[in-house]
Amino acid sequence: MFRRIPLISISGVYLVVCLISARALADAPTVTAARTPDAGLQSEVAVDDKNVVHLIYLKGDPSASDVSYVRSTDGGASWSEPVRINSQAGSALAVGTVRGAHLALGAHGLVHVAWTGSKRAEPKAPGDQAPMLYARGSVDAAGNISFEPQRNVMTSGLFREGGSVAADEKGHVYVAWHAVAKKGGSEDDRRVWVAVSADDGKTFAPETAISDPAIGICGCCGLDVLTGGDGRLYALYRGEVSLVTRDIYLVSTDMSAKRPQSEMVAATRSSICLMSTSALARGLRGVVGAWETADQVQWGIIDPKSGAMSEPITAAGAGSKHPALAVDAKGNTLIAWAQGTGWNKGGSVGWQAYDAAGTPIPGTSGHVDGLPVWSKPAAFARPDGGFVVLY
Known about the structure:
Helices cover 5% and strands 42% of the residues.
């Protein structure tokens, strides 16, 4: 037997649903996509405690690029005139997308930049190898930045890839890359190496390995490092075992541990190098990480007590690569990624924002065409709320 429901009840429920939906959309962070200033490639971005946005990118010949720096005091609405970071022209690499420059903000307002040196880069690493380069910049009272001459921090002279840089509030700077542990070694012999400075990047100790020696590293993939508020250093990278097992690993260490904590966070099977990158960012609940599997971009949150990664959340499917992360003051997380890119092939950019519980926020997904060859997206949270995706 059917019972007639009064129309007023249906209308009331419908009105409540509409009001809830409208409120949710009104509270959702806005996401704005913009081309990187100066038509730059492979943006890296960071926001300091004064809400100044610091941005670096590559320019020029992809095989012999320059690294440029700009800053914004209005949430990315306008940018300063570019300053070249590398003291030797053409000493950076854009080819492959995994070898670009990386940015970290450290103590005393210093800006730290590290990048994989091109074939022409000087000074060379031992054995006449291309170097792992580093430069630090300081901002004067007028807001002008100047960078010291570039330096090589790699002492081993062993072939390297996938550079990154991190810094903390105590004056520690960490330049990381992966390289074989012995001359003539294979992917199975690769380790994550870190050169540490305890004096704001003025000097660096010889590099030490922090990854599990039983796990090799995918030779042409990037990595990312970040310091957490707990004083630990985190590294997210693609491992390699027997040429077909290329899982994503997370290492956490305080650099004094004889055996850093290592965890496999995402399984990947591939007989070829995926030329992938990873991303790390600080969030309200802990450090956030994003990575690629063979056909997805995923992300998760690292438990600050255990150092373990949460269950992965899938943000994008087939054809998605090179994730970027940003976390706002409310704990919302934006994931951006490249779509459809490949060797010497541009593509597009997609994104999705999630709330603090890891649930997609309605109305915050998007897509834009026009990602240049050899590039990838970057993202940051605006001081007044919302996110910006640069591509």
